[in-house]
Please model this.
Amino acid sequence: MALITRRNLMKTAAAGLTLPALARSGLAAEPLKVGFVYLGAIGDYGWTWSHEQGRKALDAALKGQVVTSYVENVKEDASAVPVMKDLAQQGNKLIFTTSYGYMDQTLEAAKQFPAVKWEHCTGYKRADNVGTYNSRFYQGRAVTGTIAGMMSKSGVIGFVGSFKIPEVVMGVNAFTLAAQAVNPKITTKLVMIDTWFDPAKEAAAAETLANLGCDVIAQHVDSPAVLQVCEKRKIYGFGYGADMSRFAPKAHLTASLDLWGPYYIERAKAMLDGSWKSDDIWWGFKEGLLGMAPYSKTVPDNVRAAADKIVADTKAGTYEVFTGPISDQTGKERVAKGQRMPDKELLVMDWYVKGIQS
Amino acid sequence: MNLAFFIDALITVVGVTTPILLAATGELVVEKSGVLNLGLEGMMLIGAVTGFAVTLNYGPDLGDWAPWFGVLAAALAGAASSMLFAVLVLTLGSNQVATGLALAIFGIGLSSLIGAGYVGMIVPSFDSVFPDRLASDPLWRVVFSYSPLVYFALIMVFAVGWFLNRTRAGLILRAVGENDLSAHSIGYPVIAIRYAAIAFGGALAGIGGAYFSMVITPMWAEQMTAGRGWIALALVVFSGWRAGRLLAGAYFFGVLMTLELYAKASGFSFLPSQFWAAMPYIAAVVALAVISAREVAGSEAPACLGRPFLPNS
Model:
């Protein structure tokens, strides 16, 4: 009930946004309408928040040429389809569906609105009017892993994950490999909690890791619960996707930031000049899709320098965390010395590197 | 493996268990009065968001008292939402299962709506009730280091056990749940007693919810109870409607969940993680099977559970 009410409210809000645009349309060409479908609340200081920042960046960069609107709290089930169709009916010509779970729904809506261009975040199914886009989140993990490796006194670091899917496996592997590069003795204790969102279980997992001697804990789950536990236990943690220092001012060392703005701007420009084509991009630091939050005061200069170097070398293309030799948990060599793992292997990664306890 | 290790683990267990115990204790009283309120999840969420919002908004004025005020507000909000259910099932005689489920869904939606503006904020939590010397003592912290709500939950489960089994009022409440018509015919106000029981259940569910938003993680996030209301409901059945078993069952669940996390973090990968996640449920099934093998199935449930009481129709 509440969902429908909120959706209607959003519609009204969106209609309100378009009014001034209509009034202006006599003066300039009709602006491009761009819609966004969000998984969570725009104030979640995580996944949805970062997409909302991207939308705002698009608004600012192409002022007068685009009109954007969004619908938040859209479930990853069949109810997402009518939301997408609504956006299309309201005249949006470019629609970003910003969660993996919207994959089939996006394709379904796209089939019914072939003139609308759709962009699905982190998916892999495409069509003539559906493109996909993703971020090399693991590059940010290499930075936080470097910091964790240098800041950990116990040599044991923790990771609270959700499910054993390539996205999460890449993250914990990159985090561990980068930490081992600065301290070969590092081991990572990994807890997969089998859910994306359960703050109480996330907190219990972080407590458990702290009890087992982890003094830096990273997370790939949806709430800042892990950081709050780190704060309470006087150990360190990282934000993920957005700066989460507000939740843990002392524990929060930095965060890898998802910056979707550059992509949204480029795609809207492509729509405006008619060059939009369905594509599949996987961008990272170099293209501006990732960034780092400010380091906290606790991070010493040499650690900052090392972290900055990872970012700079990643941008320059001279550093890639998945460069051999890499062995798996059983000690078997998976990537030969000097080799870089190809993207198609990264995207299906289902094994943990040596030094991860899970 | 030393003493400190076990104390740390036990503290985690207590944190995991307390909100479930609070909600289940309230539901026990409701069910003993003959009413099945499936809306725990919704009431917990309403309590969670209310407790958080009140603590946040009045925090600057109330200082150290703000969390207490927040918990009180959470209890009142939980009770108020349960009254919606009570009017429908008691006064209007609607189906308890359907109405309870509606309350759960309503609570999820309403709490999301109220909480929309509070996402991303944090509140100060309770100070320790005991002096720091005790709360951070390497040994005694196992008893003294918790939030006040932990002690409150333990007191409530004992108080409810005592009330139901040792007091006259408790006897009347049980009589209403076992045979509403007889209780009515000898002059007990069945409907009024059930209203009171439902309000009590709502209040404890609200406090249980506040434990999430004010103690475990002092923040608000949509649906942050993540299904604990349903587990609390199952726990009441699992306990055979007895306070002592309810306490044991809640801690059993807490121990299993914590064990799962320890097993994963320690690298016991000989069992798949899905097995550990399923453990509490497997254990519940086994326990239920044992209980029903020992006693005639259903004999422990209040006889009027879930049945509408409409003496004038």
